[in-house]
Automatic annotation (TrEMBL):
The lineage of its organism: Bacteria, Bacillati, Actinomycetota, Actinomycetes, Streptosporangiales. It comes from the Bacteria. SMART domains: AAA. This is ATP-binding cassette domain-containing protein. It is a peripheral membrane protein. It is found in: Cell membrane. Residues 8-253 form the ABC transporter domain. Its main location: membrane. It comes from Actinomadura napierensis. InterPro entries: AAA+_ATPase, ABC_transporter-like_ATP-bd, ABC_transporter_ATP-binding, P-loop_NTPase. Gene3D superfamilies: P-loop containing nucleotide triphosphate hydrolases (3.40.50.300).
Length: 332
């Protein structure tokens, strides 16, 4: 594969499922559900892309198609230049996959033995395996539990083991489905640092599905958002914030507690002691608002906060923005 070729190329990919329906007590029928509904995108080598969307949006179904577990109902899909469902074994040697909710390791074996089996599975040369295992052991700090059976590992340790297993054969592409789910802050940081480094230093292309916005803010330069099977956004995080035009928040610290501030059409939507939060619409002049506040209240401190990615996405998922509902992809 040459550097110019996309690592992943999806053209109008559709996946339908036939599901049972029930209306009333006795009437049963079947209907077709379009879990992925005409998705097109390309991921270039070396990119780190977040694949986001609310529950049931179609993320896992997309990932299962990318890894060859599911076959698209229509459309064209190529990963590392291969058709995933037809060339599943060949593709497995070139990609790494981690599902946060389940492990690919052997439950009863010590981690080290599990990783040795992975080497056989992927036919990795023994010397290359030794070198890579030593590197991954150091980076993921696996040494203290290499001899522990997988079933006795904590969630964070197991996830580090799974990442090592997925990367032992040095894949070009790493596909991650919720890799930090259930992890504590320290383990999350270890995993994120490791992923960031893997992408930067080895040039591994990474596609990450997560509900953890910390993962996204820390790692992804580009995000794709899917909702009800359709790609609704594909671009940078900062552009997303700008596109959505989310409201800003004015945090006001008063000299003494007061009833919720009302200024023009704006009212505080949160009050805690002397602190109040006001949502400032984009079109509102924040400077004029601050001046009016200072005239009427004794203000100790004031700060204007841009909408965080969490608020931006919550607005999108609620359908606050027209383009979101239209299902029309937004150009990067
Ligand atoms: N094997 C299946 N048979 C029938 N319907 C399915 C199947 N797999 C997924 N679906 C449906 O397809 C839709 C998309 O599911 P998918 O698991 O891809 O969503 P998701 O974005 O990964 O959600 P979550 O964030 O909750 O994991 C959902 O409505 C789901 O119920």
């Amino acid at each position: 594969m040459t550097g110019a070729e996309p690592m992943i190329e999806a053209a109008d990919v559709v996946k339908t499922f036939t599901v049972r329906t029930r209306s009333g007590v006795l009437r049963r029928g079947r209907t077709t559900l379009r879990a992925v509904d005409g998705v097109s995108f390309a991921v270039r080598p070396g990119e780190f892309v977040g694949y986001l969307g609310p529950n049931g949006a179609g993320k896992s179904t997309t990932i299962k198609m990318l890894t060859g577990i599911l076959t698209p109902s229509s459309g064209a899909l190529r990963v590392c230049g291969l058709d995933p469902s037809r060339r599943r074994t060949a593709l497995a040697r070139r990609i790494g996959v981690v599902f946060g909710q389940r492990t690919t390791l052997w439950w009863d074996l010590p981690l080290r033995d599990s990783l040795a089996l992975v080497r056989r599975l992927y036919r990795v040369d023994a010397a290359a395996h030794r070198a890579r295992l030593a590197e991954l052991t150091a980076l993921l700090e696996l040494e203290p539990f290499l001899h522990t059976p997988v079933r006795q590992l904590s969630l964070g340790q197991r996830m580090r083991g799974d990442l090592a297993a997925a990367l032992l054969h040095d894949p070009e592409l790493l596909v991650l489905d919720e890799p930090t789910i259930g992890l504590d802050v320290v383990s999350k940081t270890t995993v994120r640092d490791f992923l960031e480094r893997t992408n930067r230093e080895r040039g591994t292309t990474i596609l990450l599905t997560t509900h953890d916005l910390g993962d996204i803010e820390r790692l992804c330069r580009r995000v794709m958002i899917i909702d009800r099977g359709r790609l609704a956004y594909d671009g940078g995080l900062d552009e997303l914030r700008r596109t959505v035009d989310a409201d800003r928040t004015l945090v006001v610290e008063l000299a003494e507690p007061a009833p919720p501030i009302v200024l023009g059409g704006i009212e505080a939507d949160r009050v805690e002691g002397t602190r109040q939060w006001l949502r400032v619409p984009r079109e509102e002049n924040a400077a004029a608002l601050v001046a009016a506040l200072a005239q009427r209240y004794e203000v100790r401190d004031i700060s204007l906060r841009e909408a965080g990615i969490e608020e931006v996405l919550a607005g999108l998922y609620r359908g606050d923005h027209a383009y979101w509902c239209s299902g029309r992809p937004v150009a990067p």
